[in-house]
Amino acid sequence: MKVQTLKGFRDFLPKEARKRSYVLSTLKKVFESYGFEPLETPALEYEEVLLGKYGDEGDKLMYRFEDNGKRRVALRYDQTVPLARVVAQYGNDLPLPFKRYQIQPVWRAENTQKGRYREFLQVDVDTVGSYSPISDAEIVTIAVQSMLKLGFGEFKLFINDRNIFEDMPKEYVTKIDKINNIKNETEQDKAMKKFLDEIPEKYFYPFRTAISTKEPTPKINEILKLLDGGIKQYVSFNPGIARGLDYYTDMIFEVEAKGYLSGSIAGGGRYDKLIGMFSGKDIPAVGFAFGFDRLIEAMEELDLFPKDLGGTKILVTNVNPKTSEIADELRKKGINTELYVDEKDLDKQLRYADRCGIPYVLIVDGKLTLKNMKSGEQSEVTLDQLPDVIR
Known about the structure:
By secondary structure, the protein is α+β, with helices and mostly antiparallel strands. Helices cover 37% and strands 21% of the residues. The chain has 15 helices and 16 strands.
């Protein structure tokens, strides 16, 4: 037996898990401040629900198999198609517009590389049931506000109109999307020149015209006018943004952070035709998704995590029967407290606190002695003094 995780899959030990929890908590507060409600869907869907919704490449990367009941099923590839299925299935029970966020893992049989995994968490925010450009502007605003709340200072939300690629073959639009993801400008220019040299002549001028567009389309201008000035400074029109997925119909965007070179952190747009695949009628929708693992990676590289991410603040030593009562009193005072439950050797308990990164140890031995594990300083305290000292 090889005691290891599968390639492209990961464990998250407490230090990493706490970072993820911090980001999720921050994002949920942003989403809910705009009136979005949580939604959860199953990991498995019927294969036919997902197949053909993401283009040929998506079908190749999807985990599909036959279950024990001989049913063809597939693991969730993203959360947009399951949302479409939910709206079609529960249409009579959902008020429109339906504003939801969804935070769950998705699975793709990717070639693993930096920032790209086979199981990863997606964070989606979508408004279903509104054609209003206000809903587009709100989604853009939430994406920007989320980045700001997480501490990103230098980033851009690049926005475009998918209609500038109207009537052009999807495989070429997908290539434009991949070229745009090349971060080295020289290599990107070479790839674009090669692409334009290779496409059929009848598409050469339409593509060159599209990606050279200087001014936003009327639809994008309408959205930009609705943005608050503080938000607008982070938004930039970019005709090279293509978004390779087939279902986008109008506004599309990607979010990139300065200093993070592994790709976009978030992306989304309007998709007014997808939900109609299940409901039999067009239902407008607009939204975006964070690539959560890239978001975490970017925050680590840019040193955006707070120094204090919560966790245990103090270890109470196990040296006499009263320590359990003291630990309970500290918890009542709002302090995350761990009681050492094993052997009573003090040196061992101190080493344990140091290894776990617990900043304080309360030594209970007739009196209460607080030890600062970083400085090594010790001082006699009372229970009433502890909250102020620790905070």
